[in-house]
Amino acid sequence: MIRDALFLYCVGAGLSVFFDLSDYFNGIYCDFYLTTMSFLLTIRIAVIIIKHIIQIDFIGYGVKNMSITKIAAITGASVSTVARVLRDPEHKYHSMELKEKILQTAREIGYVPNEAARALKNGDTPRKIFHINILLTRVNSDETDPFYSEMLRLVEIEVRKSGGLIENIWQHAVFSSEKKADFSEIEKLAGQMFDTLEQNHDGLILIGKCSQKGLKTLKRYEKNLISINRNSTTYEVDEVLCDGRKIALTAVNYLISCGHQKIGYVEDCHNETRYIGYQEALIHHGIAPDIDDVYDIMPNEKNGYHAMAYFSKLETSPTAFYCANDILAIGMLKYLAQSKNWYYHPSIISSDNIVESQYTMPMLTTVSLPKAEMAHLAIQILTDRMNGGHKAIVKTELQSTLIIRQSVRQYISTENEPKYYI
After folding, report:
1. Angle at Cα 321 formed by Cα 211 and Cα 366, nearest 5°?
2. What is the pLDDT of residues 215-267, one digit of tens each?
3. Sign of CA dihedral 175, 178, 181, 187
4. How confident is the model at residue 55, as a pLDDT?
5. End-to-end C-alpha distance for the chain, whole angstroms
6. Which residues lie below 8 Å from residue 205, measured CB to CB, with a gap of 6+?
């Protein structure tokens, strides 16, 4: 649009001058002057147009690539590798360490596609760049859970696609606590997080379960919130949900369909919908839940290892387990591999479908969450709220999918086998 207007203006000016000169020059040198002036005007028009095109292309394309070049220089990766990682962080790269370094550098320099320049190039009105904060409510800075790392990467790429800018990424597990003793810490942290912000903040993304106290406290500081979760916020804030209760029902029902009756549960039990789903599935099939088959622990690989060590020493251990997330199941499988107990090989199913789940021995059967779709919809809903598109609380629920691999086997009873004595 801008190019067309400029081109027509320059052509009109050139023709006007051309006809004025035709009337003025009537001598012997008329043809010479007309030819010379026409040639100079043509060059001038071409220079103006090319200069304008180069300027727009530099703003719209060059600035973005300068940021990518800067990231490449800092990380030591090639420009093409940086571009691929930023475009698709879930792609499998030969070096996970390099991928994490690229994403971390992008956060630090505030990389964002230059939407304003792109709009200028297309002749559109530039969109506002929103400043977004992210809070992970189930892990602290010194802990890692691949599920939250994967979800965070997907959220980051969606924020960049929308033209937003990530200001801060906080990790405070206390926001998921329902203990009254932690309420003062929640108030203190919320004040520190928002009172120290130097720039405007337009929205907050919550990844993971957040207590009612945590939600009410955060709403005092930020009016535009979206939760990505497996536990509903009960319409406190906008949310994209993959219901943990239904995830657990899918997992436990599959174990029961394979003949298992004594099924253990490993993970947090307090206000946890996956634990509720585990109990519902057992009761529905006439199986009484046994508290001895429940191991209440926070999710990490080390705790999964300890959980299996505990169950393997019981006189009557479960024949199968539902782990509420993959990282616990991976720890349990590692204990079984190292203990080399040939007489105890329980079936294990979990949920999340993190990348590592397909590389375990045996490969982990799990319930997959649509993480990419959850991140995409969350940013769409948050952007709509920040633009004033809706005021009512929005709840969007997505379905999980059972991924059958090798860690669950058909149960074969040994009670009626004959006993041989020597």
Report:
1. 75
2. 999 999 999 999 999 999 889 999 999 999 999 999 999 999 999 999 999 99
3. positive
4. 41
5. 94
6. 132, 133, 134, 135, 155, 159, 225, 226, 228, 378, 379, 382
Strand partners, 352: 368
Query: Residues 213, 219, 221, CA angle at the centre, nearest 5°?
Result: 115
pTM, two decimals, is: 0.73
CA-CA-CA-CA torsion sign (14, 18, 24, 27) = positive
- Strand-pairing partners, residue 266, are 295, 323
Task: Determine if the peptide bond prior to 318 is cis (ω within 30°).
Answer: no
Distance of CA 399 to the CA centre of its chain: 17
Residue 385 burial (C-beta neighbours within 10 Å; 0-12, 13-18, 19+) = buried
Q: Which helix (H) or strand (E) holds 136?
A: strand 131-136
Q: Which residues pair with 54 in a beta bridge?
A: none
Unique residue bearing structure tokens 């199968």: 320
State how far the Cα of 321 lies from the Cα of 357, in Å rounded to an integer: 16
Please give the Cα distance from 15 to 18 (Å, whole number). 5
DSSP string, 67-120: HHHHHHHHHT--HHHHHHHHH-TTS--S-HHHHHHHHHHHHHHT----HHHHHH
Dump strand ranges (E) for 357-421: 365-368, 395-397, 401-403
d(CA 138, CA 54): 48
Percent of the chain whose pLDDT exceeds 70: 74
Structure tokens given for 281: 């599935």
Distance of CA 340 to the CA centre of its chain: 37
